[in-house]
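Thread: quick sanity check before group meeting

JM: Hey all, I'm pulling together slides for Thursday and realized we never actually wrote out the predicted structure for the chain we discussed last week. Dropping the sequence here so it's in one place. If anyone has concerns about the input, flag it before I start.
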Amino acid sequence: MAKATCTDFVVITGEETMDIVQTGSWGFGEGPLIIAGPCSAESEAQLMATARALKATGRVHLFRAGLWKPRSRPSSFVGEGFRALEWMARVKAETGLPVTVEVASPEHATACLEAGIDAVWLGARTVSNPFSVDAIASALQGAILPVMIKNPLSPDLDLWMGAIERIYAAGIRRIAAVHRGFTPWEKSRYRNLPKWELAIELRSRIPSLPVICDPSHMSGKAALVPETAQKAIDMNMAGLMIEVHIDPPHALSDRDQQLDPRGFAKLMDELVFRSSTSGDISFLNRLEDLRNRIDSIDYQIIGLIASRMRISEEMGEFKCHSGVTVFQLERWLEILQTRTQQGVSEGLDEEFTGRVIRMIHEESIRLQDEVLKRLRSAGRCTPPPEEGKEQ
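JM (edit): ok, ran it. Output follows.
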């Protein structure tokens, strides 16, 4: 079998032209793809009990379970490995549910192909390592089974896209991304920060790519899963991957975020599935009016930001001639405080307002620094009193 090479992986430059098969054509059913099952395959009895209960709900398209668990500590439960493939085969035979597992090595991928596994996914730790993705892509070369690619641990969109491109370059066309959130660097109500904007940007760059949400890993707590799942559906995600265990309190991994089958059934009954569009003329007219108003405001925002940056460049030149540093801490703290306060008074989220102001200020500083460097190199800039001293 031909292997995918590094050369194969770098030729894809127009992501928007990717010919990706949509989830509704994978053969598992129509509508949002619902994937459910335990975090880990702990025993054949546990796996079969969970599968039977999920089958009874009539809401599952694909049964999931982790056979190989890449744990941080070797003393943690690392899965039942290759022998659990037989258990997955029994799930498929007795319940009729297609099955999917996580693969983290070429050996895992080859074993899944030989065992008749219906779909596989690459976990966040694996996606974070391009060498691992390369090796798995080679093992899956030309396979027709769907491959789902979770986001990496860090909020690195290029790393996520790189994994997708590697799988695509291996001739696989049934591809979906799985948005499971990103490792937080600060206290958060979520186990993994959603950063919905990155999933939106991924879909913008690869419009043909289905994106599925994993609300279990994102939430980290079973109580948060319904809220997160509804958010994903409201954002027109292509499906959900939900962890469900027959007895969550006694699960050997991720017990806090797993639903039991009854909780899963309740979640599915309460989820509100909306259409991404409507044929109602009054709706379309109203939507067009609102979009036009947003477009007008957006263009005004861009124009105002451009004007601000031109003033920043002028300010940089003035500071250069005056021997003043580009950055003054007191001024920056004043800007951050006053603009954030105004944003809050206008009903904006404080964190969002702060992020916007920081981005604008960072670009302003960058432009002023560029002006300073340009004038200095031309000998047209008055050096500050203590040149070279960090301010």
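AS: nice. The beta strands are 33-37, 62-65, 99-103, 119-122, 147-150, 175-179, 211-213, 239-243. The CA atoms of residues 162 and 194 lie 20 Å apart.
JM: adding both to the slides.
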